[in-house]
Amino acid sequence: TAASLLLIIAFPIPPINLREELEPGKSSCASRRHCHKSSSSYHKPPSPYLLSVLRDYEQRHKRCEPLTKSFNRSFFQVSSHQPSHVDDDDCSYVVFTRPTNGLGNRMLSMSSAFLYALLTNRVLLVDFGPDMTHLFSEPVPNSTWLFPEDSRFGNRIYGSKVDDFGSLMKNNNNNHTAVLANNSSSFLHVNLGYGYDDYDKLFYSNEVQDGLQKVSWLILKSDQYFVPYLFLMSGFRAKLDRMFPDKETVFHHLGRYLFTPSDQAWGLIARFYDAYLANADERIGLQIRVLDTKASPTALVLKQVLRCAQKEAQILPPLATKQNETATKKLASKKTSYNKAVLVASLSSEFYVELKDMFWKRASASTGSDGEVAVGFHQASHEEVQRSNDGSHNMMAWVDIYLLSLCDVLVTSGWSTFGYVAQGLGGLRPWILQIPDTKYGGGETLWGNACRRAVSMEPCFHFPPSYDGNKVGVRVDGEEGGGSPSVVHCEDVGGGLKLV
Ligand code: GDP
């Protein structure tokens, strides 16, 4: 329509590279669903092998998508417990289901499920429930990844008789592979979420993976970014190394492939970006996630944010003090030389209000001769409390995440999956802020600093199974001789794992 064409012209962001590579000549912002910023910070294209894996995936997805002949055959065969064995031509699935937790957690575990689907020749379907259906465009053009809403389908995969992987493992502790072969003609629930137990964790064993190949329907519940652990599994490693010669780009590529804003989300993103961010010389994203407002009072967090942004990351100018006021007055008579637009993403509006006032009422103490740095603060929404089962709330979250990903520099909050998604989509290594917590001494931080630069743009897997009797931390990638490790502990979560 004319209206959408106008929006495209008004939002001159270059197209996503992956879609362009998959369908040459098709993207170039021909439609909004294909327009992504080609990040100012990261330009490395996907490997040819990843592209060929994605092309194969798209063909498989089209052949097996919901309500095709192959889908119906597979689904109803399993529903009626007819014995079946999975041929190469048959469709097998991983259904990402009824997510709990916030959008960041959900997007990270969906991308992990997608990578698992690529590795095991499955098709990824999603059963979002009503609070997420309107956020994204379909990743595979002219196809759907939505599990049918019709209760005939839902009733079967969530039925009380459906097996649970962890329980199967527990009840058949000695023969994991055989029990999976016996249960190949059923739906199997797999729990890889926070709080999973040792039997659920057997999912990460190579031997069990061999058995799971025969199970055509896996119903996955997870809120974790479990990708780093797939790199520790010898059965997958060779293919992963070919797909991702640069390990730091896994979520960057997969996330940008899977998550394109819907037209509704795109409108909100584009209007905000054009009005407040587009014309700045530099865009800074500040993502402030306070989990416990009592233990982390606003004034303390604000102090920490400033210490990080002004002193350690040096992305915001210091403010004038009494001593350098005269020099600043002289500067103030000159024209502003440089414009910084700061996007504040937070559930609360307090940080935005305080920062805006602070940088407006006091001059910045730039010492150069070029005049003052102008710093403008902007906030797209302040939802006050997390309501992750609410569709319009999730839309605001998605808009904030996407806007953060369009920034040139990011400060994110430690432990926050919301920030991980933004940094990954944007291809940015953020400054990770440690939110001060009075329970642990307030101003004290893990690193002595208020923030620390991330070693890679990859998200952190918060709760991995322990690896090889705690070998983790020395060299977690299992490459015993030489070479640099590709999986390390996260900066913000000691027991977590991330790719570098
Ligand atoms: P995490 O809890 O920080 O790991 O991130 P999640 O995304 O999993 O869950 C937090 C949820 O709280 C988000 O999905 C949003 O619903 C809400 N939320 C937290 N911070 C913000 C923010 O800066 N902006 C918006 N719009 N929502 C937020």
TrEMBL record:
It is an enzyme of class 2 (transferase). GO terms for molecular function: galactoside 2-alpha-L-fucosyltransferase activity. GO terms for cellular component: Golgi cisterna membrane. It is a single-pass type II membrane protein. GO terms for biological process: cell wall biogenesis; cell wall organization; xyloglucan biosynthetic process. Its EC number is 2.4.1.-. The keyword Cell wall biogenesis/degradation applies. InterPro entries: XG_FTase. Pfam families: XG_FTase. Keywords: Cell wall biogenesis/degradation, Glycoprotein, Glycosyltransferase, Golgi apparatus, Membrane, Transferase, Transmembrane, Transmembrane helix. The keyword Cytoplasm does not apply. It is found in: Golgi apparatus, Golgi stack membrane. Its main location: Golgi. It comes from the Eukaryota. Belongs to the glycosyltransferase 37 family. May be involved in cell wall biosynthesis. This is Fucosyltransferase.
